[in-house]
Design goal:
Blueprint lengths: L3 H7 L1 E4 L7 E4 L1 H4 L2 H12 L2 H4 L3 E5 L2 H13 L3 E4 L9 E8 L2 E8 H4 L4 E9 L3 H12 L3 E10 L13 E6 L1
Parallel strand pairs: 3-4, 3-7, 7-8, 8-9
Antiparallel strand pairs: 1-2, 5-6
Length: 173
């Protein structure tokens, strides 16, 4: 198990990014430390919410980094939720708000048809708008969510309160 100090020391804070009055917590330095990154993915793969899922659903874009590694480690299929105009074929889409704007996410309908339950993976949970959007897409197709696995949670924004499934974060600010 990674000690919290080692992991927290890798996370960088950037003030006024992507806009004024936002403190951006950057997880990308974790990827530059293979030992800690590997240990983090190992820990995520051992979570019951991962074991119970048929597939991993990774959220655009940093969620892809953790989700794809987790899918490989846990030997589970990877499904992606992408931002607008990035996926071909028949898609399902949902619009959402975040702490600094609005956006939408889409999933290829065929990518989820063979699976019943999903673990949602992202880098960070803030207001919960992104994950709420993904969960609405899955629920609209009668799918189950085993939980949300994230690296960082910004607890003062109360994002986890929007969900009726387990939320497991590695670092909480």
């Amino acid at each position: 198990m990674i000690n919290n100090t080692s992991l927290e020391n890798l996370i960088e804070a950037h003030e006024d990014f992507p806009k004024k009055d936002i403190l951006f917590r950057d997880v990308l330095p974790i990827l530059r430390n293979p030992e800690i990154f590997s240990s983090l993915i190992q820990e995520m793969s051992e979570l019951e919410i991962c074991k119970a899922a048929d597939a991993i659903l990774a959220v655009d874009a940093r969620g892809f980094l953790f989700g794809s590694s987790l899918a490989l480690k846990s030997f589970k299929p990877l499904v992606v939720a992408r931002k607008p105009d990035k996926l071909p074929g028949e898609i399902i889409t949902n619009n959402y708000s975040l702490e600094y704007g609005t956006n939408s996410l889409s999933i290829q309908k065929d990518s989820i048809k063979d699976y019943k339950s999903f673990l949602i993976v992202d880098d960070l949970l803030a207001t919960g708008g992104t994950v709420e959007s993904v969960s609405k897409l899955l629920y609209s197709q009668d799918k189950k969510i085993t939980g949300l696995s994230i690296v960082i949670e910004l607890s003062e924004l109360n994002g986890r309160e929007k969900f009726n499934f387990p939320v497991i974060s590695r670092i909480t600010y």
